[in-house]
Amino acid sequence: MSHKIRLIARLDVKGQNLVKGIQYEGLRKLGDPHDFAKRYYEQGIDELLYLDTVASLYGRNNLSDILQKTTQDIFIPITAGGGLRSVEDVGLVLKMGADKAAVNTAALHRPELISELAKAYGSQCVVLSVQAKRWETGWEAYFDNGRERSGKDALEWIGQAERWGAGEILVTSVDAEGRQKGMDHELIAAARQATALPVIAAGGVSGADDMVQAAKEGADAVSAASILHYDKTSVPALKQEILKAGVEVRA
Predict the structure, then answer these.
(1) pTM (whole model) above 0.85
(2) What metabolic or biological pathway is this protein involved in (predicted)?
């Protein structure tokens, strides 16, 4: 393979707590998100992804304090998302230390937001988050943490977002999310075909085998949460297994 796959730790945040659910439901408090982020950083994770799980419901993003704390002693790329509705909202999380911003709900409602963000901060800062759920012969794009249907075909939406100026695509399988029983590999392969942009695959990671398969399907990065939070494995163990399977990882 020509590229090294990136491993991203996803940290879902509610208030000041790290939380995790299954298919975005039944959120369970796990502790201080910074403690988890620091552990993954020390283990060699490549990037962090912070998502405010209730921001879209309440129209606000509460990640500022967490981001400021994180950037004091963690020095890897950070993406922040949840409730980002405007150029100003994204500007705030970037100012607080995020390198990239993930948008979903607001972009579905007003796609030109993607173009506005790309113009203001550069496409490299704009990550389109796609929460995809199987329907009929494909996948539908959902929002508000997999609660609401958009009526849009997820793959068509990925292509549109690329034209609007997104720089990266985070595609999460709502069906697989949080279950640790395997990723939706058909979705990953289809997303790869839908765009030339870097693709972050997420949802249902059960271990290194899933990550290897995702890489072979064209994913540039894989985001994991539950298997790390619940100590099912570690970052070094994952990287070692992935490398052993013939897929390059970052040192």
Answers:
(1) yes
(2) Amino-acid biosynthesis; L-histidine biosynthesis; L-histidine from 5-phospho-alpha-D-ribose 1-diphosphate: step 5/9
**Amino acid identity at 109:** H
pLDDT at site 99: 98
Q: What residue type is assigned to position 15 of the chain?
A: G
Q: Which helix (H) or strand (E) holds 137?
A: none
CB 153 within 8 A of CB 162: no
Q: Would you state the CATH architecture of domain 6-244?
A: Alpha-Beta Barrel (3.20)
The whole-angstrom separation of Cα 90 and Cα 87 is 5
Hey, how many other C-beta atoms are within 10 angstroms of the C-beta on 35? 11
- For 207, counting Cβ atoms within 10 Å of its Cβ (0-12 exposed, 13-18 middle, 19+ buried), the class is middle
Number of Cβ atoms within 10 Å of the Cβ of 29: 10
